[in-house]
Design goal:
- The protein has 151 residues and is α+β, with helices and mostly antiparallel strands.
- Helices cover 26% and strands 28% of the residues.
- The protein has a single domain, classed as Alpha-Beta Plaits, CATH 3.30.70.
- The chain has four helices and eleven strands.
- α3 packs across α4.
Length: 151
């Protein structure tokens, strides 16, 4: 890690992605969590919620001086390392992710990456459109009418 501001992936506690990103931004550290809209069904209601595309990861723009400050944020567990040091992510990959996620397209089946290489590969695939995209969400399982019969 050097003095240049670069994007890094940090691993967070489960379900702390949005909170950690908010707290990082409050501290003046640029943070990004790619989110997608999902319709959740409860017993009494349905609601559109935003959930992380990549669970337990937040992308932060940091440098050597901000290293410890990032780790001190609630929910942040560790930087993702490669070759014994925090692995920077090229700006173009973050921008591509922001563009794809920002177009309100649904990403279909991105398995949760466990290493930065997987994250970089997922972003690369998005850029090359190797991951299938759709403009409409999956159909919801709606209750069938009592008059509906199976043929």
């Amino acid at each position: 890690m050097d003095n240049l501001l670069r994007w890094y992936a940090v691993y967070t506690r489960s379900r702390y992605e949005k909170k950690s990103a908010f707290l990082l931004n409050e501290q003046g550290i640029e943070a990004y969590v790619p989110l997608r809209r999902v319709l959740r069904q409860w017993s009494d209601r349905r609601k559109l919620v935003f959930e992380p595309v990549i669970h337990s990861y937040v992308f932060v723009k940091a440098n050597k001086m901000l290293y410890e400050k990032v780790l001190g944020i609630e929910g942040v567990v560790r930087y993702i390392y490669f070759g014994g040091k925090p692995a920077p992510i090229p700006d173009r990959q973050i921008e591509t992710m922001k563009t794809v996620v920002g177009t309100d397209l649904s990403l279909i089946h991105i398995s949760e990456p466990t290493r930065l290489l997987s994250i970089s590969y997922a972003v690369f695939c998005l850029k090359k459109k190797k991951i299938p995209l759709t403009t409409s969400p999956k159909p919801l399982n709606t209750p069938k009418s009592p008059h509906h019969t199976h043929s």
